[in-house]
């Protein structure tokens, strides 16, 4: 036990002379909900008391700056880089340096991690609204605070229907509204979007499609014709019934046979000679 205590007390003096300290391992930089989190683990054999400093620079500046809030990190071993990575189109380099007792060990450049925030953006959101023989498409950023970043990018829209020969591809700039005209009524159309930016060298697969059906053109002619035919039939039937019941053009009614006989006899008596 005494020997172990002696070794630990001399460790901060021995390590600077040797100039080695296990470097951090399993370094990862992830983007989650537009937050950038750097994580790492202590290397095998890392002695107690070691802490880490995180620095960043850009591909153009090459001057390292400490990340605010990520100095003398011990546990948990992570660093939030969201505020440091403020320009989404910039390419950043991040490194993690291990220190013990005010001494820096190893080469922190060995842990450099490149990261370009714009390459980890989600695709813009699509909204599709049909109207009379046309289709309106709007693009929106996932978060409103990112609208300016999305507006500088270029996209490609794909519109398709059940007719594969009429699939269209349109390259666009920024988050504008777009409208397709002269579409076939009653047909279902689907729209998908992808990144297609040569300047930022950003390309992606198409998003899941958003679909809508263009309203069919309604013609009133068949309905009017049917109603007129029905009206003619009803009027004709009513006239027939009125005629047959004698309300219109009444027929001359025949007298009963008894009355006919009496009338004949009376006529004969009146015409006989006296």
Structural account:
By secondary structure, the chain is α+β, with helices and mostly antiparallel strands. The chain has two domains: 11-119, Sandwich (Immunoglobulin-like), CATH 2.60.40; 122-213, Immunoglobulins (Immunoglobulin-like, Sandwich). 22% of the residues lie in helices and 33% in strands. It has four helices and 16 strands. The protein has helices at 2-18, 147-151, 221-244, 257-271; strands spanning 25-32, 35-41, 51-58, 65-66, 78-80, 92-100, 103-104, 113-115, 125-131, 134-140, 154-161, 168-173, 177-181, 188-197, 202-203, 210-213. Strands 3, 4, 6, 7 and 8 form a five-stranded antiparallel beta sheet that branches. The chain is rod-shaped and about 125 Å long. 13% of the residues are buried.
């Amino acid at each position: 036990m005494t020997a172990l205590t002696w070794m630990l007390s001399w460790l901060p003096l021995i390590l600077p002379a040797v100039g080695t300290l296990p470097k951090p391992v399993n370094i990862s930089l992830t983007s989650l909900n537009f937050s950038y989190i750097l994580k790492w683990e202590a290397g095998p054999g890392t002695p107690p008391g070691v802490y880490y400093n995180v620095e960043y620079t850009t591909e153009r500046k090459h001057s390292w700056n400490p990340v605010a809030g990520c100095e003398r990190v011990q546990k948990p071993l992570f660093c939030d880089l969201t505020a440091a990575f403020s320009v989404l189109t910039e390419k950043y380099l991040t490194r993690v340096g291990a220190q013990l007792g005010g001494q820096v060990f190893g080469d922190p450049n060995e842990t450099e991690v490149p990261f370009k925030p714009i390459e980890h953006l989600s695709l813009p959101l699509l909204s599709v609204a049909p109207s009379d023989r046309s289709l309106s498409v709007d693009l929106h950023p996932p978060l409103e605070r990112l609208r300016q970043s999305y507006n500088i990018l270029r996209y490609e829209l794909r519109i398709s229907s059940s007719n594969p020969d009429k699939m269209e591809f349109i390259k666009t700039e920024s988050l504008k509204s777009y409208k397709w005209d002269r579409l076939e009524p009653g047909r279902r159309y689907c729209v998908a979007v992808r990144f297609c930016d040569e300047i930022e060298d950003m390309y992606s697969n198409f998003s899941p499609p958003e679909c809508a059906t263009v309203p069919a053109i309604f013609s009133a002619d068949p309905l009017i014709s049917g109603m007129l035919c029905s009206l003619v039939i009803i009027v004709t039937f009513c006239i027939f019934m009125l005629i047959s019941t004698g309300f219109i053009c009444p027929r001359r009614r025949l007298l009963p046979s008894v009355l006919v006989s009496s009338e004949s006899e009376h006529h004969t008596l009146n015409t006989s000679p006296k």
